[in-house]
Amino acid sequence: NDEDDSTFTITVDSKMFHFQARDAEERQKWLDALQEARDLHTDNYALLQHTSRLLDSTASVSEFDRRIIEADAYLQVLIDQQQEIDQQMSHAENFPIQSCENIKLRLQHLIELVKKTIVC
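Above: the chain's sequence. Below: its structure in token form.
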């Protein structure tokens, strides 16, 4: 009957909650919304637990430190390449000056971005 199609019960922590929707369609909307909320909460909880385990793990900290050191090494490579490009461009007469300045500017922006990434 319609009344049975419109009711549902949710049990949380040994407590039972009885609900009655207007009809089966509204009941299904409620069930879908509740399921979506539960899934979202479960996913967020799992992510928080995973993040917490990563932060608590000394292995993860050493992995993080290793990656920071690696990023810093790449940053140094970029800085060395920037200096090399500056030297080559200062001696090159066949490069258009505007193109050289654009390359220098873009490389400087990239270096600053990498620096900010490492610091943050």
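The helical segments are 2-5, 24-56, 58-91, 97-119.
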